[in-house]
Each structure stands twice: as C-alpha cells, then as structure tokens.
Amino acid sequence: MKPILTAKNLTKSYAKGILALNKVSFTLDQGKVLVVMGPSGSGKSTLIRTINGLETFDKGELNVLGIKIRADSDERKIQKIRRRVGMVFQQFNLFPHLSILENITLAPIQVQKRNKKEAEEYGMYLLCQMGIESHAKKYPGQLSGGEQQRVAIARSLALKPELLLFDEPTSALDPERINEVLDAMRRLADQGMTMIVVTHEIKFAKEVSDQVLFIDSGKILEISSPEVFFSNASHERSRKFLNQIN
Amino acid sequence: MNNINPNLNTNLFKKIKNSLLAKSKYNFCNFIFFLISISLILKILTSIFINSNWEVVTSNLNLYAFGSFPIDQQWRPTLWFFSLLSITFITVYGPKWKWLRKNLIFGWIGTVPLGIYLLSGGLGLNPVMTRHWGGLTLTILITSCSILFSLPIGILLALCRRSSIFLIQKSSSFYIDVMRAVPLISVLFFGQLLIPLFLPVGLEIDRVWRAVIAFTFFVSAYIAEDIKGGLQSIPKNQIEAAKSLGLNKYQINIYILIPQALRVALPAITNQLIGLFQNTSLMAILGLMELLGVSRSILANPEFIGQYIEVYIWLASVYWLFCTIMAFVSKKLEQKMTINKGY
C-alpha cells in the first residue's frame, strides 16, 4: 500500500509561544479513512488545514501525493497540491452568487481548463450521486444546510481529487440533516476514496474509519484502529474525552 | 405577520389623530404650521403657473437638448438618446433570458463609443467640433464617459489597495487619500489648465476630454473606497474555499471577490454616479456649454434677462428627472442582483 500523505514533525506556533501543532507525524495510505478527534482548540482543524496549505507551519515536512512541502515552500507548489486535494468545510462555503452547477463547474473550467459542456455533464453526474440534481439551477441560499453540504462535497469531487479533507462537515447542520451528509461520505469511503475527516460523530468513525487519530494541545496522543480506540483507548486523555462525549 | 400590520396601522392612525386633536397649544402649533405650508405652496404654484413666462424655456428647448449642434445633424444625438433609453428599458423591463442578461453589460459599454462616434462624426458622418456640443447631450456624454472609465479604475484601485506588494498598496492608498482630500472644483481646474502644460508640444486634448479625465480621476477614488467596503464584507471563508479549489489569486478576484463586492457596493456606487451627474454642472464655470452653461448663456441673452426663476426651476426639474431615472435603474438592478443568502 503506498502512502498518500506523510507528515514529519509538523510544528506550528502562534505568537505567544502556544503550540498549535507539536511535532505531528503520521502517514496515511491510499484508500484509507482517517478520523481526527480531539477537544475543541486541540489543533485538529489546524492540522487538516495545513495539509492543503490554508495554514502555514514553522518546522517539519509534509509529503502530499508525492509533493514535498516545507515551511518555506512557495504558493505554486501548494497550488499543485490543492488541485489534487478536495476540501469540505464546516460552514459549506459555497459561492452565494453562483448557481449550484456553476459552483461545481467553476474550478474544473478555470483551473483544469476543461471545456464547459464536459464539466457540466460531470457536475450533473456528481449532483445525481449526491441526490440533489433537481437543485442544479438554484442558488446556495435556497437550499437547506444538508443539501448545501452535499453540494460542497460534489464541488470538491469535481476536480477528481485523490484525497478529500473534511473539516467538521456535520457540525453546522440540524441533527435531522446530519445523516444525509454522512451517508454521502460513507458511499465515498466505500468507493475507495482516501479521506481525512475531523468529526465528533462516533458512530460514523466506528463504522467507516480505518484509523482514529486523537490530538490534544497540538500533540498526537494516539493513532489506533477504531476498534481499539473506542473500546480500549490507550491514553488516559482519550478515555476522558470519549466519556465526555458519550 | 398579518396580525401585526393592522395593529400598526391603527396605532399610527391614533397617533396622527391624537397629535391633531390633542391639547390646545399643540392645536395652535399645528394650525400655524398648516398656514405656513399652505401659503408656501400657493406662492410656489402662482410663481410657476401665473407669474412665470415659460417662453424662456420653450423657445430654447433645442438649445437645452443639443447646444449649438448643427440643426441638420441633430438626429445624431437624438438617435443616441433613443439607444440609451431603449437599453435602460431593456435592463429594467426586459425578458430574463440568460444570454441577454450576460451581454447587456456590453450593450451598456457600447453606448459610450456609439455616442462619441455619433457626436464627433467621421467615418461617413460630418465631423462636428466639440465646441458645438452642448446641453443635455454634453452632460450625459461627460457623465457616461466618466462612469465607463472610473468604474474599472475604481475596481483596480480597490484591489491594489489590498495588494500584498508594498509599493502598489501604498501608492494606491496615497492616490485615493489625495483625491478625497482635494475639492472636485480644483481637480477640474487642474484638468482644464494644467493638463495642457504637462503634454508635449503638438499633442492637445480637447476641453471635453480633459473634463472627462478630471472627473474620472476624482470619481474613481471614491468608487474604489465603496468597492473596498464591498470587498471587506466578503467573509474570509469564501477566499479559503476558492483557494482549496486551486484557484489562483487572479481567478479568486475575478470570479469570487469582485462579483460579490460589486453587489454589496452597488447602492454606494449609484450614489457616486448620481453625484457625478450633478457635478458635471461645475463645468459651466469652466466654460463648457452643458445644461447649466446653456442656462447661463440664455440668461445673458437680453431677450430673457432676469428670468432666473423659470430657468432654474426648469434646470432643477431636468436634473431631478435624470437622477431619479438613475436611482430607479439602480434599484431595479439591485433587486435583480440580490443574492439569496437564505436567512
């Protein structure tokens, strides 16, 4: 199994000497799903955002899809990664002035220079997969949160990414709407998509993940399989965390 | 919702009734106010309909519309007016076809070169010197040319102001700050008197174009500030989403930031453009025969001497009419462009 992502001693500090990431090292193999858990402020969002360069880091090395980046790597190298890594945000972050289909086809047309018709056909195919093809002509504001998040997933899939990042994709949703998004993510995992998911959904983590990464104060406390993590976590802090959210 | 409105109405009604029929001293105040306003209205109406001699306007309508444009060529500005009117009409009431909406902007941009061509002639039309341009034609031409140039420059300035390159950022903020600190009239004088001094010998820019340049300099700084406000209103996560899709800085500006910023800034920009339309009257001081310039020359005519009231009432209503049209079009555009944010 070839690793898609390798992080070596990633370190990032904020101004007051607080470490957002403290020597974070891990690898992720192709086709695996990694769930990142941790209390709020633990650095899990920072971690996932460093992978596609939305956050910078101070020390260490990151190898994403064979592209090595260091603290001083320039924007172009990071852009190469972004073209092959999709990201889904907590607040959906759809472009409100573009229709659903335009949201999805913007990047394929502008970044990958695909022709418009082909991009639209593929966009419609993705919307069908997400079960929201009837909304293609609408605007983001006319859709519910769950539908918007599924559009966001379709948008990140439009570039045919080799790795998908989810930053708390269900945290801003109504409880009733969470499952429709999780189901879509489950289907992606079944299709063999490599994913990193920051989430608090224990059921989803148990069923879908191959690895669970627990992080607190910027430090990885444990990486283990979900069976071990949820029944017999090795670190005391993880057990305390699991007790609290259960 | 439906329950609230009737209550509000009755409350409002009660308030008016109470204030009218309240204690006697209020009654007295109301009565005085009523008397004053009635007498004012009567005064204005009599001066408009009885004491005034509107011949000063009616006999000079041609001058007001076209200035001293040759009479046999006046179909040219008329044609231009009609093209402007029709594109306004299409913008406001036209069908919702997507290709039409997308290309309407080019129609608007096209009206300016069309106007310049129709007015100045050449290419098969008799050339007409700019000193014959005047009246409403000239006012609208200066306004529309300045709008056409100052909008893109304003957008560019706003973007430069947020640039990460130190020199570009500082120089554009310096430009904006200077332009906002200088009164318009001095910029106009600068345009008329100083631009010729800076130009090499033999190259000469016409008075009208010097005015357009000066207005563009001035208004673009203000528009840049309005668009800056629009840019600031866009949440940071929009940029992050665009970045995560691999768009570069240029693409983020073109496809994500500017379209959203323009929508937010539209009311403020309209304000600037209405101001620009009114401010073209300052050119009368500098000797251009636009609406106010024509009025001044008519008042200097011994035949109409002293008829200030008629001329200025007429002038005010013409400006009012066009500013109202501009505000109306912008309001309609706003309604069409509003983003449904869903909350």
Describe this structure in words.
The complex is a heterodimer of chains A (246) and B (343). Chain A is α/β, with parallel strands linked by helices and 246 residues long. Chain A has a domain at 95-160. Chain A has 9 helices and 10 strands. The two termini of chain A are 34 Å apart. The model of chain A has no long low-confidence stretch (mean pLDDT 91). By secondary structure, chain B is mainly alpha-helical. Chain B has a domain at 129-337: MetI-like (MetI-like fold, Orthogonal Bundle). Chain B is 76% helix and 0% strand. Chain B has 14 helices and no strands. In chain B, helix 11 packs across helix 12 and helix 12 packs antiparallel against helix 14 (308-337). The longest helix of chain B is centred in the last third of the chain and has 31 residues, at 249-279. Chain B is globular, with a radius of gyration of 25 Å. Chain B starts with a helix and ends in a 6-residue tail after the last helix. The A-B interface holds A 52-54, 79, 82-83, 85-87, 89, 91, 93-97, 106-107, 110-111, 139-143, 155-156, 159 and B 237-238, 240-248, 251, 255-256, 259-260, 263, 339-343.
